[in-house]
Design goal:
The complex is a heterodimer of chains A (116) and B (110).
Chain A (H helix, E strand, L loop, with lengths): L3 E4 L2 E4 L5 E7 L5 E7 L5 E9 L2 E4 L6 E3 L9 E3 L8 E8 L11 E2 L3 E5 L1
Parallel strand pairs in A: 2-11
Antiparallel strand pairs in A: 1-3, 3-8, 4-5, 4-9, 5-6, 7-8, 9-10, 9-11
Chain B lengths: L8 E5 L4 E6 L8 E7 L6 E6 L4 E2 L4 E4 L5 E6 L8 E8 L12 E6 L1
Parallel strand pairs in B: 1-9
Antiparallel strand pairs in B: 2-7, 3-4, 3-8, 5-6, 6-7, 8-9
Chain lengths: 116, 110
Amino acid sequence: DGGITQSPKYLFRKEGQNVTLSCEQNLNHDAMYWYRQDPGQGLRLIYYSQIVNDFQKGDIAEGYSVSREKKESFPLTVTSAQKNPTAFYLCASSIDQGGGAMNEQFFGPGTRLTVL
Amino acid sequence: DAKTTQPNSMESNEEEPVHLPCNHSTISGTDYIHWYRQLPSQGPEYVIHGLTSNVNNRMASLAIAEDRKSSTLILHRATLRDAAVYYCILRDEGNTPLVFGKGTRLSVIA
């Protein structure tokens, strides 16, 4: 089935450790995105990539890093510099062949990260 | 991005229609109106989008005011599975990321 995979669903880490969240899509989408969601809040954009080997910072990029070496993969690393890393992390993708404002974003199931 | 305003929460009885409002008084002529919903502990999913005319699909209808300063998402018969947070989002011409507000939390009562 086509879709976006995020693993694991739940992740626990000790404070001070870097952790990498996985995001894979087999939709042949050009653009990929990472969002963070805190309880009772909307989603906030961390990073996005519109093409392989290129990415842009979102509104809350500090303490995070990404790479886009392959079209289907966009891993997010939560570094020890991120002050409040415990949150629900959502990855998304969209096709980018014109029609920009009409393009739908498809979301993965999310990874809930808890830093102890 | 232009801002949208939605009520924090709404409640509906099961099998009754639900009208979820969204105000976007600063919308530009090229902004599309998108609706997404997020079920508990899941990622958001696309519901519907439109530019000027009313739109219908299998999930919902979107009614857009003539001046485009407001819109309404209509669920024709709410079910318990429609309980979610509904986000109204404006998107400009570029393929820019969606910008989410807090949305409207819809509760459906059996």
